[in-house]
Amino acid sequence: MWWDELPKLGFTIGFVGDPQWKDKFFKIENIEGFEYQTGNTSGTAEFSTVASGGLSGFKQIEVLDPDKNKAVYTSMGFKDGCLYEFKVKAGTIRFGPDGDKNAARLSAQKSPWWDPDPTFGFWMVENYFPAVQARNVTPFTITPSVYFKGFKYDLKPVPRPGDGKLSLYQLGGVGDTS
Question: For 25, 30, 63, 153, which has the most beta carbons within 10 A of its beta carbon?
């Protein structure tokens, strides 16, 4: 299965793709699965309705922002007729989303709700949560919804391992560099 390729408990990992994370390494102390659906409860209504042909604007999914010394690997699934664009990292600045990596444009055909495609998975660390924009290409008004499924990692900072037992993963974007 795809999750067999993810790092396991006790592995030492690092992240590439941002100079802030260069030469920082972590031992995995705990792993737990998670699922999150936008708009599933009153506290998760990131999107409002989008008219046919309309755009939602980029919505920050801040609930996915990992705490310090934590990381998240997630993939996404969709069930409506929208096309979704992602920007990862989407940290909040004064003027709105600061999306420096346009990670993907996805739909239910590429990554269905009931079985999110891990090909489009990505890593997040503190301040690396996604911003998502829905483009409604259907003839109906839709409230967009994104289903995130993956793993949360508790990390302990460690020195760079001298034995070469280290996996590096790309922050944001799609894929990894292991």
Answer: 153
